[in-house]
Fold this sequence. Notes:
GO terms for molecular function: phosphoprotein phosphatase activity. By secondary structure, the chain is α/β, with parallel strands linked by helices.
Amino acid sequence: xxxxxxxxxxxPSPTSCSPSPHRSxxxxxxxxxxxxxxxxxxxxTSGRSRVVVVLPLIWPDCSNVRDLGGLPTTVGELKxxxxxxxxxxxxxxxxxxxxxxxxxxxxxxxxxSAWECETWPSPYADDARWRNVPLWDPADPDxxxxxLFEQYVVLVDDYGARIASAMIAIADAPPGCVVVNxxxxxxxxxxxxxxxxxxxxxxxxxxxxDYASSxxxxxxxxxxxxxxxxxxxxxxxxxxxTTEELNALTxxxxx
Length: 255
């Protein structure tokens, strides 16, 4: 493997291991970015079907930002302004920073490795709200030759303490909104968010639908967690989280 293009070995690498899709500073910045299309997710509630619309947020120039509020749970729905998933925040323009501040973020949970954080520094790295919980380290075994599902399983089975730490970082943040991000906002962020939503009682079919091309992969992963550990709550308890921390997490999202 080309060490000059080192990458997270438990999950697919950022595209070409370069700042792409970061925009070149020579390109003009649009003052009115076009909003991404909404995610329309079918859900069943009280015996009736309805469509849950998850609106992407406009944080120029991030490309994969969503507030997970509005998703139904077994006892209600997730509250808006509690949990946001995102790609790397080093892409933010001045307008993007203003949008972040308007969202009243109280914690940034950055899942990237130390190498990634050094190569593409978060603009909030020196902020007391920023917490780095790397799910990958350059010294970890290289499993990049495995399929996506198998890589997810390695992440869940071998790095449970890291995943639990990331979710505890969400749970113990000051009141307000938490952002979870990695480089592209897909794989590492996707695993943490999927487990968080499962813990909160969001239907697994709805969690999977939100992942589009990797829908079956997420369902298989949640099934793996259920079969091997007895469910997400039991998995996190075995990985170092406490009952109080998990209750705080679910209360934060839906309370």
